[in-house]
Amino acid sequence: MSVEGAPVTVFVVGDHAEVLAGLVRLIDGAEGFCVVGSSSSDPTTVTEIATLQPTVAVIDGDAAGSMPLEVCRRLHVAVPEVICVLVTAGVGNRWKQDEAVEAGAAAVVLKRLVDFSLLEVIGELTRHRSDREASR
Length: 136
Description:
alpha/beta; Rossmann fold
């Protein structure tokens, strides 16, 4: 998977070390994808993403409090060209899919399906954006 021959660059955000490491391994190990950074939910996350300008930000939607939605909102304002994808267990999370979309998320992926669908979703979103930009 790549856009115009370049790998799809991804920044991963999460406050659980195991989840963060697993997402980084999954994405970075896939052909056509490159993790350019990862972060816990600290205040510098959006600044790091803005500096690195990845194609996609993958955010652990099950992180504590409202962090996932807040990061997504801040990204949508600061760097709207970065595609935000939230991953969630889907059970007991503190927000709904509608709230995620309102915060600027382009997609929500269930963790139990991450191995099968996360890379496909990221690829489809980046292809769609490339097609839109080419038609302008």
